[in-house]
Amino acid sequence: MSPPAVRAIVVIGRDAPLWLAAATIAKALEPAGVMVTAIELPSALHPADVYPTLPALEALHNQLRIDEAALIRASRGAFSLGQNFVEPASGASGFLHAYGAFGTAIDGKDFFAYWLKARRHGLSVGLEDFSLTAAAARHGRLLIPDAETERYGRSDYGYHLPAAAYAGILKAVAIRDGVTALTASGANAVLASETGDIAALIVDGGEHIGGDLFIDATGGEGDLIGGALGVARESWRSCFPADRVLAANGPALSPLPIYAEVRAWRGGWTALHPTPARTHVAQAYASALASDEEALRGAEAACGFALADPAVRSSDPGRREAAWARNCVAIGSAACAFDPVHGVDLHAVQLGLIHLLACFPVGGAFGAQRAEYNRIMRSSFEQVRDFQSAHYALARYEGAFWASAREAETSPELAHTIATFRARGEVPPMEEQSFAPDSWRALFIGHGVTPESHLPVIDRTTPDEMKAQFRRMLGFVKEQVLRQPTHDEYLGRIADHAGG
């Protein structure tokens, strides 16, 4: 006899992770007759919270039929071309982790190797100058990709989305697409005595909500995956120096930057996420080195303006030993919590959803799919962790916080990646990688890691041809950037379109 089909899915959680999961699953599985129920728990959001996103979220929005202009208007969000990492006290210009490619191929070979060779021979032009997105960000312009720029290289963007407004938008999308929405102050799991699977959730008033598959989007608490099923959590506390994050609001910036800025100070770092209405500020620090009051003062000093609505929460990176246990799949920080430095919270949700749909069980016996999902997610989460860990291991900023960051634990895989880059400027290919080689290169070069050599295959290209190609690229980047609208102009067009 065939195992029973999966027809009823229950998603429990709060805020954007809940509604992004419910909407995505409902949209993808509606043709298969799958019904989705979402149980909304009380919000954990503060007024200052914002979701900085990576570029991949745009594709998911498209699948959900979320109109980008309407999203930006309704959320009062903004665009982001990357993150600018600086240490104001040193006076150095810092580096931009731009969401796009750096340079374009020469003679069919990767640009980066040519740039390395040219730098060894006296080239003074930085890597950023060959990036459309980095150059646009520096000029406050939104690089809108088209066929011409795509031939040059990737030109991606993310968003800064005020968290409460974005969650509300996703809830409306989920309900539009057929999700049954319930609210509850909490829920208890009922386990089947024969299998240990979750049979139902008991919510306020004693109502039983049954399902074939349960999605845990409850956050770091992991009410189902950890509480009901007892799946242990592997801590990554030893890999990251910050255990506290302060969120606060500041005044809007003018003109509006089109990137986040992460400002290092002796006690941690302060991230500024600009939106039209305000600047959302996140301050990461170690409680052993700074009190909450000192962190707030440090954030205000780093920002240069007073902050309002401060709220503090803990930061506890780590992952569940299994993201899928029995008939329960943990999504987002219920499965894995990350350090806040690169704003990957929603990316973790998206990773889980993409791979869940790829492994989705047709029937109720899904041991093979579960094992494959856990393998993929473990690898995906560890790759993101290593990218974040590299930032702390390589940063040369001053202060006790950064000294402890450089002493933090790193994985053997990250050590291999750093060593390989130092040797020849290569980033080893890795499965389930969220960050492209260009992102790794920006991080390494930005932190002063200088490769000892370059790939010899590029030596077939003559120096004169290299110079001509470099001049052509720089001219193309300048021409394309200057014809793009400023961030303020583009947001103005979006607002005007609503009125028209």
- What portion of residues is helical? 25-40%
What would you report as the Rg, rounded to the nearest angstrom?
Answer: 23 Å
Number of strands: 22
The CATH class of the largest domain, by name, is: Alpha Beta
The average pLDDT score comes to 95
Enter the CATH topology name of the largest domain. Answer: FAD/NAD(P)-binding domain
Work out the count of structural domains: 3
Strand content: 15-25%
Looking at CATH, the homologous superfamily of the largest domain is FAD/NAD(P)-binding domain
The major sheet is characterized as:
7 strands, mixed
- Low-pLDDT parts are none
CATH architecture term of the largest domain:
3-Layer(bba) Sandwich
Gap from first CA to last CA = 60 Å
Return the structural class: alpha+beta
> Which strand order does the major sheet show?
6-5-15-16-17-14-18
**What is the global morphology?**
globular
Helix count, DSSP H or I runs of 4 or more residues = 16
Pfam family, one: Trp_halogenase
InterPro entries: FAD/NAD-bd_sf, Flavin-dep_Halogenase_NPB, Flavin_halogenase
Protein name: Tryptophan halogenase
GO molecular function: monooxygenase activity
